[in-house]
Amino acid sequence: MKQLVIPAILILLAVSLFVLGVFEISFPEIFNLVDKLEAWQYYLHIGIAETILSVLLLAVAWKMNRALTERVLEILIRVGIGGMFIFASVFKIADPKEFAISIAQYQFLPHDLVNIWALILPQAEFWFGLALIATPYVRESTLAILGMFACFIIALVWALALELDIVCGCFPDIMGAQSKTGAWTTLIRDLVLLVPTIWLLMRKNKWIWEKN
């Protein structure tokens, strides 16, 4: 019983901390209660600390019950990463013109490719996000998602290198993360999410409900 309950509690705490950490890194304005100071001055380092603590808790849970930890993590990562890509794609699909403007502000792609990319990328986000959750093709879906993460990271590094004052365009305005000069927080979030995504790439192809 001890080998089941304690790891389950540790996994729950770790996942909660990881999700909260990612939100605090990605959307600091949500947590900003002090108007005179930038949100990142208070919450970015807290978000990073929470993600590190979540990894330590998972390490303990994995040592106590490896099978349970890996199974729960795989399900949560597939649903979390896949759901995030689906969520991000819906608003871009609904308003491709606005998304094309977001892409153009990065000054990265040739002008002739902006509109095409604005149409293709949201579709890829939606279908590969859905495939990660609803099909057994974990590795193929994860590889495609890693490719998109790579594109996002390269574009963000480019924007930061040129010191562009941009809006990320990743999520809708209701998430509160669409303030300018937020590219670096988005970059940190994507780098953090690379870790569970790469881990998922090493898993076997199987349905989400299927046991190892």
Protein described:
- The chain has 212 residues and is mostly helical.
- It has helices at 2-26, 28-31, 40-64, 66-94, 96-104, 111-134, 138-161, 183-201.
- Helix 4 crosses helix 5 (96-104) and helix 6 (111-134) packs antiparallel against helix 7.
- The radius of gyration is 18 Å and the shape is globular.
- The two termini are 21 Å apart.
Tell me what portion of residues adopts beta-strand conformation: under 5%
Q: Briefly note the structural class of the backbone.
A: mainly alpha
Low-pLDDT ranges: 174-180
> Alpha-carbon distance between the termini?
21 Å
Largest sheet, strands/sense/barrel: none
What number is the mean pLDDT? 83
Spatial extent as radius of gyration: 18 Å
Dominant shape: globular
How many β strands by DSSP?
A: 0
Q: How much helical structure, as a percent, in the residues?
A: over 70%
Count of alpha and pi helical runs: 8
The sequence of SSEs as H and E is: HHHHHHHH
What key phrases describe this protein's structure?
mainly alpha, single chain, 212 residues
How would the blueprint of this fold be written?
Blueprint: H1 2-26, H2 28-31, H3 40-64, H4 66-94, H5 96-104, H6 111-134, H7 138-161, H8 183-201
Helix pairs in contact: 1-3, 1-4, 3-4, 4-5, 4-6, 4-8, 5-6, 6-7, 7-8
Task: Characterize this entry briefly.
This protein is an all-alpha fold.
